[in-house]
């Protein structure tokens, strides 16, 4: 069994859903050494999240942003946690809905994503800053 791990700092991105598959693969080139295994990508933040979804049509990412903004609106007077602005608590709720990690199988040195699948950084803040990820791969 081999285990590899690398931290990755993503540049600040605007609020929305951003494909980061290439950056993840580049951060851990040792994936190519694994015949079979697992890759986990974990985000070290509570106001951004990760998911896997459509990687071809950019309107999907726009629709994701529209849906989550409707589902978890800003400026709700019932929110108690708003120390960092009106997008603060909604960002935490959106991150809780989507999650902090994704897990992808590895086969013959490659991530086994479907034809139209990519890894998304889901940035829920207007000014979230750089985002730290930990990419871990293990297998044989």
Query: What's the total number of strands?
Result: 8
Which architecture name does CATH use?
Answer: Sandwich
Average residue pLDDT: 97
Instruction: From the 3D structure, determine the CATH topology.
Output: Jelly Rolls
Query: How many strands, which pairing sense, and closed or not: the largest β-sheet?
Result: 5 strands, antiparallel
H/E element sequence: EEHEEHHEEEE
> What amount of the residues lies in strands?
35-45%
Which structural class do the helices and strands define? alpha+beta
Domain tally: 1
Uncertain residue ranges: none
Distance between the termini: 5 Å
CATH-level-4 superfamily name: YjbQ-like
Which bin fits the share of residues in helices? Answer: 10-25%
The coarse silhouette is elongated
Strand order of the largest sheet: 1-8-3-5-6
CATH class value: Mainly Beta
The whole-angstrom Rg is 16 Å
Question: How would you sum up this structure, described in words?
Answer:
Helices cover 23% and strands 38% of the residues. The protein has 140 residues and is α+β, with helices and mostly antiparallel strands. It has a single domain, classed as Jelly Rolls (Sandwich), CATH 2.60.120.460. Strand 5 (101-107) and strand 6 (110-111) form a beta hairpin. The protein is elongated. This is Secondary thiamine-phosphate synthase enzyme. It holds the Pfam family YjbQ.
